[in-house]
UniProtKB/TrEMBL annotation:
The protein's name in its UniProt record: Diguanylate cyclase/phosphodiesterase
Domain of life the protein comes from: Bacteria
EAL domain: residues covered: 23-273
Ranges annotated as spanning the membrane: none
Length: 275
């Protein structure tokens, strides 16, 4: 190959180089993003199927960089993890979300995504305790969302941390359920009290019988374990109808509300609007 296309290696090097440079530039700017107030939270509502009322919001992190524009969370969160920034960022997210929820007119829950780093390295139970104390948010209004893949690496530590968090009265949801490979074992080992079905199963719900079967099976599992099931990524009325018929407990998705600055939901949360 090298003989036929002598330049291939050179081109390859150049593109790897520029990818690497791009990444380095992102990393450098991410280190300053907190200080420069470039990080923010948007909120997406979840709705109780039975009452059709909003039951709470999920906080989702955004980075709007002056040089790179909006950077996708999946990208910059991975970066933050790899450069040792995630504990600091995760602590900021918790504090910001709890302070926000403490101001709401109604006692809705706020769900915060938590990175494996915060469980494996940090002392998440203490960070949460301190955050609840300083913001005045009652523990039962906070939920953390964890993905199953993160828990396997340091099993004992993860179990211990989550048990301490649960003992505080904070809810623990298993996120992206169905995408990992140890779902059932993890479910039994960890003190979850809510299950979120990954949105990849919802996408083809109306067209594909496999997805429907999986969603039904997870809902059955939830009923058996007495864990409410939230379905995320609901984009169409048709999907919502199917999920209602299947007995989903709560739904979340673009159909009912996009992740937005909390001011977009002032009709629900703002004391000045709702009182
Ligand atoms: P996730 O926790 O599974 O969050 C749900 C993602 O689905 C969000 O993407 C949300 O914007 C998107 N979504 C919600 N409804 C719909 C819908 O109807 N259709 C479609 N196509 N998408 C929908 P987002 O905001 O880009 O976040 C991506 C991931 O980044 C999150 O997945 C979560 O794993 C991570 N993440 C976001 N914020 C934080 C954070 O504060 N801390 C940590 N550790 N991770 C976070
Ligand atoms: Ca989540
Ligand atoms: Ca999810
Ligand atoms: Ca996800």
């Amino acid at each position: 190959i090298k003989k036929e296309r002598p330049n291939t290696l050179g081109f390859y090097d150049a593109s790897v180089q520029s990818e690497w440079q791009k990444r380095r530039a992102l990393e450098q700017d991410l280190r300053l993003a907190l200080q420069h107030r470039e990080l923010s939270l948007v909120y997406q509502p979840m709705f109780c199927m039975r009452s059709s009322l909003c039951s709470g919001f999920e906080a989702l992190l955004r980075w709007n960089s002056p040089t790179h524009g909006p950077v996708a969370p999946d990208l910059f969160i991975g970066l933050a993890e790899s450069i040792g920034l995630m504990e600091e960022v995760g602590t900021w997210v918790l504090r910001e979300a709890c302070a926000e929820a403490a101001r709401w007119a109604v006692p809705l829950t706020v769900a915060v995504n938590v990175s494996p780093i915060q469980i494996q390295q940090g002392d998440l139970a203490s960070v949460i305790t301190e955050t609840l104390n300083t913001t005045g948010l009652p523990a039962n209004r906070l939920e953390i969302e964890v993905t199953e893949s993160m828990l396997i690496r340091n099993f004992d530590r993860a179990v211990d941390t989550l048990q301490r968090i649960k003992a505080l009265g904070v809810g623990i949801s298993i996120d992206d359920f169905g995408t990992g490979y140890s779902s059932l074992a993890t479910l039994r080992a960890f003190p979850f009290n809510k299950l979120k079905i990954d949105r990849s199963f919802v996408r083809d719900l109306a067209e594909e019988s496999e997805s429907l079967a999986i969603v039904n099976a997870v809902l059955g599992l939830g009923r058996g374990l007495r864990l409410p099931v939230v379905v995320e990524g609901v984009e169409t009325e048709r999907q919502a109808d199917i999920l209602r018929d299947c007995g989903a407990d709560a739904i979340q998705g673009y159909l009912f509300g996009r992740p937005s600055p909390i001011s977009a939901y002032s009709n629900i949360t703002d004391p000045r609007v709702t009182s």
